[in-house]
Automatic annotation (TrEMBL):
Belongs to the thioredoxin family. This is Thioredoxin, mitochondrial. GO terms for cellular component: mitochondrion. Signal peptide: none annotated. It comes from Tichodroma muraria. The keyword Transport applies. GO terms for biological process: cell redox homeostasis.
Amino acid sequence: MAQRLALQRLLSFPTRGPLASHGRAFGTSAGRRSTFNVQDGSDFQDRVVNSPKPVVVDFHAQWCGPCKILGPRLEKLVAKLEGKVLMAKVDIDDHTDLAIEYEVSAVPTVLAMKNGDIVDKFVGIKDEDQLEAFLKKLIGA
């Protein structure tokens, strides 16, 4: 009987909508987020190539140690710029086609894009001062 009640309670939770996470609603407004994961080639075209704002593109992989250090460091600095620049994260294992198209031969590779054009690039890990200079150059500060 107790198992049946537990199962009924579990099944009474909505599986869709804002309450699907056991009653806790949360917003994920894309307008306020400056960092996003690229979903596919079309998403990359829409949100990176056609972006009115400069975009930093972080080509990374889950198995890459330096990527795990660089990614959060870069995200923190992009967030500090409060929407002046966006950051697109591209997992090369999920999006091999984009990695080939943008000639990514090692990870991490970071591109700076403005109006759909690559204006700067680096490969490997950088310290915060170097990343700040990279971002300031991109936004023209």
